[in-house]
Structures are given as structure tokens and as C-alpha cells.
Design goal:
The complex is a heterodimer of chains A (460) and B (227). Chain A folds into three domains: 156 residues, Beta-Lactamase; 84 residues, Helix Hairpins (Orthogonal Bundle); 150 residues, Histidine kinase-like ATPase, C-terminal domain (Heat Shock Protein 90, 2-Layer Sandwich), CATH 3.30.565.10. Chain A is built from nine helices and 13 strands. Chain A has a six-stranded mixed sheet. In chain A, a hairpin with a 3-residue loop joins β5 and β6. In chain A, α1 packs antiparallel against α3. Chain B has eight helices and 14 strands. Chain B folds into two domains: 116 residues, Response regulator (Rossmann fold, 3-Layer(aba) Sandwich), CATH 3.40.50.2300; 95 residues, Winged helix-like DNA-binding domain superfamily/Winged helix DNA-binding domain (Arc Repressor Mutant, subunit A, Orthogonal Bundle). Chain B starts with a strand and ends in a 6-residue tail after the last strand. Chain B is elongated. In chain B, α6 packs across α7. In chain B, the strands form four sheets. Chain B has a five-stranded parallel sheet with strand order 2-1-3-6-7, with helices on both faces. A four-stranded antiparallel sheet of chain B has the order 8-9-10-11, covered by helices on one side. Helix content of chain B is 40%, strand content 24%. The chains are: A alpha+beta (460), B alpha/beta (227). Chains A and B meet through α5, α6 and α7 of A and α4 and α8 of B.
Amino acid sequence: MISRYHLTQTTLVGGTLWAGMLLLLWIISQLLVWQDKQEQQSEFSEFLTEVEIMLNEHGLEHLLQEFELDEDVIWSDTEARAHLLDDGWLVSIYEQDKLLFGANTELSAATSAQWQSVSLGEEGDTELLSARLDLPDNLHVHYWQKRDDMHAQKAEFYEQLSGWFALLSLPFILAVIVWLQLKRTRPLQDLSAQLEKVAHSPDSKRTEASTSHPDIVALSLAINQMLDEITRLHGNMKTMSVGIAHDLKTPLSRISNRLQSMYQDLDDTAALEGHIDKASSELAQVINTFNNLVRLNAIESGKHIQGFKTFDLSALLDELAQSYLPVFEDSGRRFDVSIVPSVHCHGDRDLLGQLICNLLENALEHSHELSHVWLRLQSHTDSALLQVGDDGPGIPQGDQHKVFDKFYRADISRGRPGNGLGLSIVRAICDVHKAQLCLLEQQPGAVFNIEIPTRSARRD
Amino acid sequence: MHILLVEDDPDTADFICAGLAQHNARVQHCDNAEQAMLSASATPFDVIIFDRLLPNMDGLDAVRVLRASKVKTPIIMLTALSDTADRVAGLEAGADDYLVKPFAFAELYARLKALARRQPLRADTQELFLGELTLNRTSRQVIRAGQEIELMPKEYQILEYMMQNPEQLITKTMLLEQVWGFSFDPKTSLVQTHVSRLRNKLDKPFAFDMIKTIRGSGYLLTGQSDD
């Protein structure tokens, strides 16, 4: 259930979080302790100021009363420390260097109110505030105050709290993270399980997110989109292979027949030559199909794009129209040409030449004798509009969206020569030139409109 | 013709050698680029036939090396790669012609003859003669037996190309490449239509046909009557 990866992640994340929280807790407790000490320190300073005022106003007697010290009382170091522990404070009053009253102790006193750490033997360490007051008549008062018990307890409490927190929070945090990870991993595991099933029937099954987590839902949708695209490509490939098989079957079976006939006519040279000629032309058709497939692939790969140049499209069309005019005339069709001069475009001259040839050949092949075929070129603001049309029988209504598919042929029989790749090549050429290609609907005959962008041509 | 054939596929090599032997051409065959480059530098061949895909070395690189070492023998490349870009790459590397496999032997032979003959014809030759036919490349005037013939631009280009390669087979593909600049094969009778129109003007009014059809292969321009 939990992989090594998840374990490492959990430990790393949980550990960092735990350490971070612990550090934060420590900083807060230190701040609170520091605040308490500051408070006590300022109270201590105020008290010293009061002592000074009292001495000045009422004299030493009053001060001794205030400290509840008997005259001449002098505590030894041990007594002094015991007093400090019990009452929380200690005083020594000196005249010059001679101790008059109070503690005869080795504890030092800072010149102004300051904290110091002192070891009190068995009682352990404690912190003291100490200060020295220099008074007139060479009087010095040394005063110590133990840290407020309440504050010390608070500090101790904070330490204990941190300790317990450190001890208890680590497993808690780890548990929470593990739970979160499991919660997040489960839909992903579900998704992988579904994908394993999809692999067996990629055309029909799709994934479904078992959670409302938006990321997982988006992932599931993206996977479904990808599967749809794969299904589409897979379908294309099937059509392609079926198309290739169909396209090759007819000429190959004819060649096979011819080869058998050649055996029969081995002695008849004239018949033999006839068979060889027919077989060769059938083979030429097979090779032509492959050449067209290879060319189609090359065009679709877009490798021609880097060789794009700006050239005179009108001139190219003129030349092709001149070339095809006799072909249309000889086949008994009327061929009208109307080309706006000096239209330039950016592209591959050879490819656009083939595009026009394929459309003209298509018109020639699929129109009847005496029909009318036309080639037009108009110039628009950002594009050139090329139209190749005929008033022949056109393409059946339901098939119009299929005409550019590979191996589509209006006549199912495949009896006529050609391989149904001509218009696929036209579409591929339009795609690499970012040209819009459409077959006009609701028109008698087949009319192809191609809008070739010319903006980039003018910029060159 | 003395020909160097560089081809690693034994079947194709046999096919070409057998065909060339029928035309009494002398053929030296080698199946790798290294040996081919040594032979090409040592012997003055009329034409070299170079396969594009050879073991250890791209034929294109071999041709580049040959051209760099001043071997000027015409080279025709054979290749399974039919795309225009590959064709351009081949010609840029220094090959003189490019033929896509599979091909008819007649196509290869026609191209070999055209290449072998290419050297004597200078680009600035103004007038071409063949029998009673004269073609002026500056004025684009065509005269047969003292009679001027008006030709359309494509018809003129076809005739000009045929006159540069007289008495030789010229295939449909060669015309498509040379006259139209097409690297693809249109399905229809584009070439046939134009040649037939050219014939109507060039041959019909005269005593004999100069343009002969070689069945299944192409055309041939001849200066003499068969009789």
C-alpha cells in the first residue's frame, strides 16, 4: 500500500514540519521568558530608585527598617545564600569597604541592574538580579534579587510543554501525513487500475475520476482526450492499411494473371510483349501509390517549410494553365482561366504546383466530356483566393467531408486508375502553407476554394 | 560508354550490368564507397552510377568527396528517397542527375546517354542542328527544311531539350523534370498531349517523322528517315 517513495516523502515532510513547529514553540517560550525577566528587571530598577530616595530622605535607619534588618546583623555566606533562597532577596550595606549590615557574601554585584547566573549548591542554579547603589558619605548598598518563582515555574512549564509536544506531535504529524497521502494516492491508484483495463480495449473504455479533486478530474479528462486522439489516429491507420491493401490488390492480382498468361503464351512473342507491357503498367500504378504515400508523409512532416520562398503565384498558375489547356481541349472540355497578375505568396513553388496539378487532374478525371472546368486566382487584402472548379457530377452529399481522406474514392470499385491520395496531398500542401481549403457545398459540380495567406509574402 | 557502377544490392547491380551489357557498355562494378572513390579517381569513366545508401557511408558524402577532389565525371544517383528535398540535396552535393528506385532500365539508360553526351554541348551554343531541323536559341526560331515552325513555349522547350540529346531515348519523366520542373508525376497525359501537338507542327507537314515513340519508354528525336 505504502511504497518506499511515500515512506521517504512522509518522513522528510513530517520531520521538517515537526522540527519547524518545535523551533517555533521554542522561540515563543524564549520570548515569554525574556519578557518576564525584562519586567522583573524594570521593577528591580524602580525599587532601587525608591531605596535611593528613601535613604536620602529618611536616612539609613529607615532603610534598615524597610529591609527588616536588625542593627549590626551580618550574615555569613551560607546564611546569606539561605536567605536569598527563602526570602528571595539579599542586601549588603558598606561604608567604604567595610560591611556595616547584611550579607557577607562572595556574590558579586553589578554596577547597574543586571542578570547573573549563580550556583546555590544543592539547590541548583538560579538567576539573580544584582545592582550596586553608590550613596553619599561613601555608603554602598549591594542588592540581589532572586528570579521570581512564578516566572521560573512558567519557564519550566514551557520547557516541559516543548518536551511533551516534541514527543507526542511527531507520531501525530506522521499519521496525518500518511492519511493525506493515502487519500491523495487512492484516486490515482484507481486511475491506474482503470488505465490497465483501457489498455485492453482502448477504443471503447474511458477513465472516470473517483474523486472530486480538481487536479485528478483534469488528469482523467486529459487522459480521455488523449485516448480519443489515439483512437482517431488508430482509425486513420486502419483506413490507411485497408486503403493500401485495396489499392494494391487489384493491380497485383492483374500482374499475377499476366504472369500466368505469360507461361501460356511463351511461344507467342507478340502476346508475350503485350502481357509484359500490361504487367509493367500495373506495377507502375503500385509504385505510384507508394511514391504518393511517401510524398504525402514528407509533406505532412513539414520539412519543406524551411525552404519556403516568396514567388509569383500568378506566373506559376499561368504556366500550369498554359500546360493544361491543350490537355483539356484534347479531352473535349472547356477550360477557362482567369488569373490576377503579380500575386505573390510565400511557400514552396513545387508543392503549390502539385496542388494545382492535382486539382486540375481531379477535375479532368471526374468531369464528363463537354463539361466546363475553370481556374481562377483573385487577390484579397491578406490572401489570395484560388478556385478550381468543374460543372461535372460533383461529389455525393454525404461524402463531401471524406474527399480529403486518404484513399477516399468516389467510385468504390477502384476500377479506375488513381489511388485516392491526390486530394489528401492537396490538403497536406494547404496545411503546411496554412491555407484554408474547402469544397463548396450546394454547388453543381466540384468547386474547391483555397485561401492562401499572402501577408508574409509582402513583408519579405 | 565506360561506366562505374557503385551499388551494394547484388540484384540491382546484376539488373543494371545485364542491361548495360546489351548496349555494349563497359561496366566496372563495386559495392562500397571507398573502392568506388579509388576507382573514380584513377580511371576516366564516362558516367558514374552511385547508389545513395551504401554500407558505412552515405553516397551523398562520397559524391561530395569526389567533387572536392576534382573528379568531374558526370554522376547519376540512384535512391529510394523520392522527395524533392532529397533530390535537391543530391544535386547540391555534386550529382548531375537523380533517379528514384524502382526505375525502368530504359529510363536509366536514357539518362546515362544524356549525361555522357552533356560535356560537348556548351551552354552558350546559339544554334542547334539535326538533319533538316535548325533551332535558334536566341531568337527561338525553329526551321525545318527551310520552313519556319511556330511553337508554343512548352513545345519549344520540349524540342530544345530533345535537340540537345538527339538520337537518344528521352523519357516522360525526363521531360517532366527538364521542361516543367516537376518532381512528381501527374496522372494525366500532360507530356503526351504536348508532344503530340509538337508532332502536329513538326512532323505532319513534312516527309518523315522526326519524333519517334519508343513504346513504353519515351521519345526519340532523329534526323534521318527510317527508309
